[in-house]
Structure prediction request, 472 residues.
Amino acid sequence: MEQKCLLSSLILASLFISTSCSQPKKALRFETGNFTEETRTVQTSSGEKEVTYKAYLHIPYVSNPVDTDYQSLNIYVPISINGSPIDPSSAPILFDIAVGGFMSVNNAKVKEPSYRGDLSLAAGYVVVAPGCRGWDNCSADGTYYGKAPAAIVDLKSAIRYLRHNERELPGNTEHIISVGCSAGGALSALLGASANNSLFTPYLEEIGAADASDHVFATACYSPITDLEHADMAYEWMFGSTPTSSGLVDQELSEQLKSDFSKYQLSLNLQGKDGFGLLTAENYRDYLTTYYLVPSLTKFLNESPNIQREEYLKRNAWITWENGSPNFKFDDYVTHVGRLKGLPAFDDFGKGQPEPLLFGNEITNARHFTDFSLRHTSKNIDANVEEEVRKLVNMMNAFYFLKNNEGEIAQHWWLRNGTSDNHTSQTVMINLAAKLENMNKNVDTWIFWDGDHCADNDPEGFITWIETITRD
Ligand code: DHB
Prediction:
C-alpha cells in the first residue's frame, strides 16, 4: 500500500517545491578561510586541556544534494592546545558518525564536537562530523528520501569530499578513522568493508559525490547493529528462552529462528581464536564465555575495591569467584542481561522497528526484509523478499562485502560492546571480529562488563589506539 509520509502532503506539495530539484549544483571546494575560532575545555586523564580550534560548519559535500541540512558536514581543526600551537597538517581525521536508530542526522543543528570529538581535538586530531539522510526523512510532497541505502551513500560521499579536498584540508586523508555506535557502528563497519564498491556508483553519481575514493584507514564500531537479515535468528539463539517484560515470546517461532541461526552460523565458516575451531551455534556459548565474558568480568572484579567486589558477588550469586578467577553459566549471564525486544526482534511483524522502516522506499514507509517475516505476515510459505530489497539489505551489511573480500577493506578495527547490551545478539559483533581476524586484519575487541548498548568505559583507549595505528 502506498503511504505518504505526511497526512497533508498533497496540500503541502502544492505550496512547496520539492527540495530534490530546487537546489543549485555546488562546487565541492573546501574554503580554507571560512571558519570561526572556538575554544573548549576538555577533561582528559592527564588533566584539563584547553583546545582552540577552527570550526568549519555546515559544508555541503555533494554537488546535487537532496537536502543540504543532512548532506553537509562540520570540520573541526585544532590549532592550539593549552596555548601551544599545533600543526594538524598530517593529523589523523576522526570521522564521527552520530547516526542512531538508522535515522537521519541534521547537520544544520550540529555546532559542536561530540565527547569523542573533544577528546580527539585534545589529542591534536582533525574531527569531521557528517550529517546524513535516514529513514525518517520525508519531503513536503510526501516522498521518503532517506531509506536504504541513503545513509551509507551520504557517508561515502562525505569521505569522498574530504579526499577530493586533500590538498587544502588539514589532516591526513590516508588516516581517516570512522566511528559510530549502534546503527552508526553498523555504518562505520560498512565504510570499512565496502570501499568503492560498484553497487553504490549510481547512487553516488545521482547526488553528485566527488570523484574520489571512499576508503577509510580504520573503523571503530560500538555495539554495531549489523547483519540485519540474520539478526532475528541470532537474537533467538541468545534470548529465545528469556522472557521479555510481557513473558516468553512464541517458542515455536523462536525455535524456527534458532534452527535457522545454526545453519547460518555454519555457512559463515568462521574460525575462533587460538585454534578454537569452527564457530557453531553449539559451541558459541563457550567461545563467548571463555574469550570475551570471563576476561571482561575478571577485569571488572579485579579493578573493583574489595568491599565493592564482595557486595557485587553477593548480589550476583550466579557468579563464582576463586583465586582471582570468576566463572558462571552462560544461561545465567543471559538471565542477568534480560531480553529487550519481541519476536522477531528486527523484522517485526508490525514493521514498527527501525529496520523495516530502513528498508522502505520512496512511497512505502516500511517493508519486510526477511523471508521469515514476509512469509509469516503474508501467510504464504513460498513468499520471498523481492530482489530489490535483497540488494538493499546486502548494501547495508558489512558481512556481505567482507565475504566478497573486494576493494580496499580497512586494515584496523576497534570493536566495543557492553555485556548487558540486549539490542542485538553478542554473536553479531563477535562474528564480525572473527571474520576480520580470519582475514588477518588488525582487530581490537572488548566487551565492557555490565556495559549497556553503546557502552564506552574507555574513550581514551580509543584515542591512544588511533595514535598507535597511525604512528608510522
Ligand atoms: C539502534 C538500536 C536498535 O535496537 C536497533 O534495532 C537499531 C538501531 C540504535 O541505537 O542506533
In short: Residues 284-303 form the longest helix (20 residues). Confidence is low (pLDDT under 50) at residues 7-25. Residues 100-102, 182-183, 225, 346, 353-355, 423 surround 3,4-dihydroxybenzoic acid (CB under 6 Å).
